[in-house]
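Protein modeling request. Please complete all fields; requests missing the sequence field cannot be processed.
Requester role: graduate student
Desired output: 3D structure, token encoding
Chains: 1
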Amino acid sequence: MVPLPKHRPTNLSLGPLETEILHIVWELGAVTVKDVRDRILSDPDRELAHASVTTVLNRLTHKGWLECDRQERSFVWQPLLSAAEAQALQAYEQLQQFLAIGNPDIVAAFADKLDRASIDQIEAIAQKLAAIRTAREKQ
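Delivered output (139 residues):
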């Protein structure tokens, strides 16, 4: 189970190019603008200016997804969260938004329409939650 990360980006909303570039950063671990641009331009049907990659990397940095470090004469970006941490954080935020509806009838009506696999998942989650709470109480 991936715990929620302590670091949270200030803005979880990402556009398609931001998402694509973030996935490249996760895959490579640390990137320069050239690394990202070369990866995207490996698709012959794509075009992307150096300045556009720089802009997106800087946006991801300002949103709190990446950090930038100057190494010799170039800038290197690294993720502040792993892909798994980001997925856990985004799922948590979506769940919070869903539960913010606050109307148990709506939530129950939605849950009533779930298929068997989804219900099994919810039951497994409930069991894990009970085990976590029991372990916490024993501490």
